[in-house]
């Protein structure tokens, strides 16, 4: 059964710092990996989607990398801002049989950016 | 703009009562999902549906029921058999093969037992 782990569980950094969030998964047979952001009491907002054949994706100050063979992904946030404070969730998609796909989540990293 | 609408935002349930959470999407996605989120536990899959009039149990389906009569709608009923229903519920949708497009989530419904 696929398991997704995110380290650290919480992170506090001063404004302007670059930071890296880590995600690891146990089964490398994935279709894609998606990073989400969740603000308190809100739904999930998709940040980046990396196909299994890709190594990285970039959007603005965010860069996500994927090393499928080692079961790892990182989310790099450049020049962090207080508005980046949120919980970041990593999720992997794998085929679960009978035409179905399973999305498995990590428990998230809670980021606080201190002004 | 296309998206997923969940209602209500907050819902209160009395002991022994059934309640229904609404999820509507206008993304023309084939597949829809319900997740439950508890503090410290991450998201867990309750039910999912790949096509109209068909749905499958997820990891924690006991005490819940769903229907998929229309492509756009996937309501979740929390029955009295669900002993600990207080949680944040999230609905999501995707294309039949999500590998190129990923998942889209709604804004969630917070259910509280009173």
Describe the structure.
The complex is a heterodimer of chains A (115) and B (114). By secondary structure, chain A is an all-beta fold. In chain A, 0% of the residues lie in helices and 62% in strands. Chain A contains no helices and eleven strands. In chain A, the strands form two sheets. In chain A, strands 2, 4, 5, 9, 10 and 11 form a six-stranded mixed beta sheet that branches. The model of chain A has no long low-confidence stretch (mean pLDDT 94). By secondary structure, chain B is mainly beta. Helix content of chain B is 0%, strand content 51%. In chain B, a hairpin with a 2-residue loop joins strand 5 (42-51) and strand 6. Chain B starts with a strand and ends with a strand. In chain B, the strands form two sheets. In chain B, strands 2, 4, 5, 6, 9, 10 and 11 form a seven-stranded mixed beta sheet that branches. Chain B has a four-stranded antiparallel beta sheet with strand order 1-3-8-7, with no helix packed on it. Chain B is built from no helices and eleven strands. Chain A binds chain B through residues 31-32, 34, 36, 41-46, 49, 51-52, 89, 91, 93, 99-103, 105-108, and chain B through 6, 31, 33, 40-43, 45, 48, 50, 56, 88, 90, 92, 94, 96-108, 110.
């Amino acid at each position: 059964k696929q398991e997704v782990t995110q380290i650290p569980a919480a992170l506090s950094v001063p404004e302007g710092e670059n930071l890296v969030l880590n995600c690891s998964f146990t089964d490398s047979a994935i279709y894609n990996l998606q990073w989400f952001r969740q603000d308190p009491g809100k739904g999930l907002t998709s940040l980046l989607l990396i196909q299994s054949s890709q190594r990285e994706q970039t959007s603005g100050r965010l860069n996500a990398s994927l090393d499928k063979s080692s079961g790892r992904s990182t989310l790099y946030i450049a020049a962090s801002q207080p508005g980046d404070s949120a919980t970041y969730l990593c999720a992997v998609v794998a085929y679960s049989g009978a035409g179905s796909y399973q999305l498995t989540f990590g428990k998230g990293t809670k980021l606080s950016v201190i002004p | 703009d296309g998206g997923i609408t969940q209602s209500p935002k907050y819902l209160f349930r009395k002991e022994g009562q059934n309640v229904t959470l609404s999820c509507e999407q206008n993304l023309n996605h084939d597949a829809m999902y319900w997740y439950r989120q508890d503090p410290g536990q991450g998201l867990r899959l309750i039910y999912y549906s790949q096509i109209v009039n068909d749905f499958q149990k997820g990891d924690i389906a006991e005490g819940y029921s769903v229907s998929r009569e229309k492509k756009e709608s996937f309501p979740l009923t929390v029955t009295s058999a669900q002993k600990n229903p207080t949680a944040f519920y999230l609905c999501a949708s995707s294309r039949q093969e999500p590998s190129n497009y990923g998942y889209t989530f709604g804004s969630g419904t917070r259910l509280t037992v009173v």
